[in-house]
């Protein structure tokens, strides 16, 4: 066989690059995480687990974990459920489905940094359109009733929106009460269209006769069919969508760097931003490497959880 | 009766989806609208979508010593002119094209032969190499940005085009994807090529590559969209040198340079950066959705 040698030339460039670009850096980060190295100085000391210990010692790192986890805990469920909800609505439409699908997918395509600036203008406390609508809404009867909950019998002045009306509208990105929520909102806005498309693909792969079978078994309402057929048949899609959304949410950076720089008072100090700030901006390679390793640990954990669920045979087909 | 409730629920679904559409569209609407309006219209949230388009005077233009007539223009002209003149926006766009295309070309150059070998050649260590590919799928490049930056800095490569491209030259996802695709190509095709005396090298580029065009197109969209939009990695390795900045990084530079109320030009620049992919997407929706959700189909 004349071709037995060519494989070497085909495979080795890829293998070398995998080692140099993907695997070596993990070891580099692992090594430097035990040092106090910074890019300015010529030598460094081995300091053992000190960098890892400082993760537990300083409040900025506990704020970092809180910010990252809160972001993930908000963005993942909401964007997954919105993705599923919009996919189900769209797939049950008689017309116009393609239109909504294209619109909801736009944020996935668009340069996030540019869109972050557009959101910044929308959320601006003074000239932002969101606060203008909320402000004007205070004097529109039905809008005020709806958002204060007075139509449900609540006292409007005690509600959140009622309070804003009598005081002033929030500074969405500048107030630590709202900043992480606003960043999460942009994250959801960006992510749910991707999940929607995956769910649309999942929905079309459900055999229609299962619904007929469920009807024979007495599942008549839409909710019962959903519980009995749709939800479990989407098993593999759920696992994939949840994992990829979690991994991506862990990597949130663009919106934070552009809009809040981790503030106010570290309320949006997410992990990748912390890694960037420590390692690249302040040149504290040791601490940055430690954050890198911890971050990789999180990502690995998420992926292994996915593998575990896939092996538990979430597919029924 | 039943017919009526059916149309009723159809209408209900449309109402929900239209509300969603309004929220999703909002930043796009603002971005484009701001790029049309004059500073005062932006400040006062007036003027509708297009603004009144009343002639305005560009003060910086006057300061540059040009005549009053030359410096009086429509707000839309002012905004887009400022976007291209105040910042090297064309340069940024060109850099974006150069970087995304080189990344894609090198990715294919490296991944295609490897994928072919893994799918169709039998050799010692093949399973180990494939295992390595699967293992590397677990490592997100953004997560190891810091050590990569460090290594590039050691070789003096920060602030170069190479730094923007090198980390992405190996796409393990591309290898995996193309291998799965090549598995479906019948062996007879390859054997026939060998009978014709073709070398393994020309089999990869003259037989396998043409069969893989649809899969490659999807991968191209996946790769180009990711790297055109990428902000994190360019932000790490490019500091200060505007001639190397990619569109998102340039946009950020523009924002930090602008004084007070240059929102119009800023949003004009943002529109120009976002437009190519969005327009391409609207023209070839199916292909784009397929390409970007590729990672969802493994």
Short description:
The complex is a heterodimer of chains A (317) and B (298). Chain A is mainly alpha-helical and 317 residues long.
Write up this protein.
- The complex is a heterodimer of chains A (317) and B (298).
- Chain A has a domain at 49-111 and 176-317: MetI-like fold (Orthogonal Bundle), CATH 1.10.3720.
- With 317 residues, chain A is an all-alpha fold.
- Chain A is built from 15 helices and no strands.
- In chain A, helix 1 (6-32) packs across helix 15, helix 2 packs across helix 3 and helix 3 runs parallel beside helix 9 (179-204).
- In chain B, 71% of the residues lie in helices and 1% in strands.
- Chain B is built from 16 helices and 2 strands.
- At the A-B interface, helix 1, helix 3, helix 4, helix 5 and helix 9 of A face helix 1, helix 5, helix 6, helix 7 and helix 11 of B.
């Amino acid at each position: 066989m004349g071709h037995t040698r060519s494989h070497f030339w085909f495979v080795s460039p890829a293998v070398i690059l995998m080692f140099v670009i993907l695997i070596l850096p993990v070891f580099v980060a692992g090594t430097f995480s035990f040092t106090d190295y910074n890019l300015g100085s010529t030598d460094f000391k081995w300091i053992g687990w000190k960098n890892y210990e400082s993760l537990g010692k300083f409040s900025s790192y506990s704020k970092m974990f809180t910010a990252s986890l809160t972001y993930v805990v908000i963005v993942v469920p909401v964007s997954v459920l919105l993705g599923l909800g919009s996919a189900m609505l769209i797939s049950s439409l008689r017309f116009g489905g393609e239109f909504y699908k294209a619109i909801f997918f736009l944020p996935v395509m668009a340069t996030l940094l540019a869109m972050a600036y557009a959101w910044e203008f929308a959320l601006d406390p003074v000239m932002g359109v969101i606060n203008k609508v909320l402000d004007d809404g205070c004097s529109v009867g039905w809008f005020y009733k709806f958002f204060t909950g007075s139509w449900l019998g609540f006292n409007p002045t005690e509600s959140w929106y009622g309070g804003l009306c009598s005081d002033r509208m929030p500074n969405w990105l500048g107030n630590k009460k709202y900043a992480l929520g606003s960043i999460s909102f942009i994250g959801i806005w960006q992510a749910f269209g991707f999940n929607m498309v995956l769910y649309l693909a999942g929905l079309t792969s459900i055999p229609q006769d299962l619904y007929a079978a469920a009807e024979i078994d007495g599942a008549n309402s839409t909710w019962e069919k959903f519980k009995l057929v749709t939800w479990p048949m989407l098993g593999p899609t759920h696992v994939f969508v949840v994992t990829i959304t979690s991994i991506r949410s862990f990597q949130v950076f663009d919106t934070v760097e552009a809009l809040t720089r981790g503030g106010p008072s570290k309320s949006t100090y997410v992990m990748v931003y912390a890694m960037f700030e420590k390692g690249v901006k302040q040149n504290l390679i040791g601490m940055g490497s430690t954050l890198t390793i911890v971050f990789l640990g999180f990502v690995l954990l998420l992926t292994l959880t996915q593998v575990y669920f896939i092996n538990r045979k979430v597919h029924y087909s | 009766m039943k017919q009526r409730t059916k149309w009723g629920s159809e209408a209900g679904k449309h109402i929900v989806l239209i509300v969603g559409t309004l929220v999703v569209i909002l930043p796009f609407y603002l971005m484009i609208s701001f790029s049309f309006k004059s500073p005062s219209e932006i400040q006062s949230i007036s003027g509708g979508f297009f603004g009144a388009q009343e002639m305005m005077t560009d003060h910086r233009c006057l300061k540059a010593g040009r005549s009053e007539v030359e410096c009086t223009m429509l707000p839309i002209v002012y905004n887009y002119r400022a976007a291209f003149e105040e910042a090297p926006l064309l340069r940024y766009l060109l850099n974006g094209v150069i970087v995304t295309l080189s990344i894609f070309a090198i990715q294919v150059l490296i991944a295609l032969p490897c994928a072919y070998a893994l799918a169709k050649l039998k050799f010692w260590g093949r399973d180990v190499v494939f295992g390595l590919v699967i293992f590397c799928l677990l490592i997100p490049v953004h997560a190891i940005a810091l050590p990569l930056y460090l290594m590039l800095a050691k070789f003096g490569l920060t602030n170069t085009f190479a730094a923007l491209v090198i980390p992405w030259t190996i796409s393990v996802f591309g290898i995996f994807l193309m291998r799965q695709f090549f598995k479906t190509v019948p062996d007879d095709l390859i054997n026939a090529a060998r009978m014709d005396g073709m070398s393994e090298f020309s089999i990869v580029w003259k037989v396998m590559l043409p069969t893989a065009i649809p899969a490659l197109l999807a991968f191209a969209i996946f790769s180009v969209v990711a790297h055109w939009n990428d902000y994190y990695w360019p932000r790490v390795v490019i500091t200060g040198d505007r001639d190397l900045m990619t569109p998102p990084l340039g946009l950020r530079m523009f924002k930090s340079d602008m004084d007070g109320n240059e929102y119009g030009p800023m949003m004009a620049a943002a529109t120009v950066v976002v437009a190519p992919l969005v327009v391409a997407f609207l023209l070839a929706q199916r292909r784009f959705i397929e390409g970007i959700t590729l990672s969802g189909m493994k």
